[in-house]
Amino acid sequence: MSRITAxxxxxxxxxxxxxxxxxxxxxxxxxxxIRVGGNSLAITMRTPGNDVDLAAGxxxxxxxxxxxxxxxxxxxxxxATDEGLNTYNVLDVTLAAGVxxxxxxxxxxxxxxxxxxxxxxxxIDAVRTTSQHxxxxxxxxxxxxLLATFPDRLREAQDVFEKTGGLHAAALFDGRTGRxxxxxxxxxxxxxxxxxxxxxxxxxxxxxxxTVLMVSGRASFELTQKASMAGIPVLAAVSAxxxxxVDLAKEVGITIVGFLRGQSMVVYSRPERIVEPARTAEPxxxxxxxx
Length: 291
Prior knowledge:
Main location: cytoplasm
CATH topology of the largest domain: Cytidine Deaminase, domain 2
Structural class: alpha/beta
Helix content: 10-25%
Subcellular location: Cytoplasm
Function: Required for formate dehydrogenase (FDH) activity. Acts as a sulfur carrier protein that transfers sulfur from IscS to the molybdenum cofactor prior to its insertion into FDH.
Order of helices and strands: EEEEHEEHHHHEEHEHEHEE
Active site: 116
Number of strands: 12
Largest sheet: 6 strands, mixed
Keywords: Cytoplasm, Molybdenum cofactor biosynthesis
């Protein structure tokens, strides 16, 4: 049985019509403890899979690393239980030589839930980490017609969501060609984004200039922060952004697009990046006066 999905016995009821018992697939949610150099940094609830991406992206979001060269290796820790078994739920990251260890103040006293990645933070000021990848001068100009295709393409590529209906997704698109570079799914929207950013870390692609981060839910402050830390100039969502997300986007120069559905969208910041291509004017017909 895959650790991404789990088969459970359920009772399906249709009011005044039927009642049946059958097996159903659910998205798995398990804790992942992220350690750096053997020291515990955080515990997050996630869908197993792409855990190294998740850890790498998390470290970018926290300002621990900023480039692929900062991340040396990661391994699952054996002996994670009293019986000495490897649960594949404890991942220890090794940073590259010369990269400072995380500030002890980053250590979370309690775990991060799948719904809230910032629950261990003491204040909003504490999460306004300064990004090493400024985006305000990113020269990406995006065709809204191309952008409008991203939600359907995101949905079509969600293999696990198709089976369970219970996962968020995040995808990274090339803003100029529209090519989907990577897609990740997770029970936590922040984890899905971290997995996307972590993929970019391993591929040596940071900063992610000229790209669009497309998410399946809303655009929260935290997702905007993660986009900023990875150097992503455009964050698009099928639902609404929060007011704090828009405030941060304006502050750092990110374009936020919300309610991206069908052929319509709402641009909340830096709208000059979303521009329809110039159309060649039709030649005017010569008019001839009647005699």
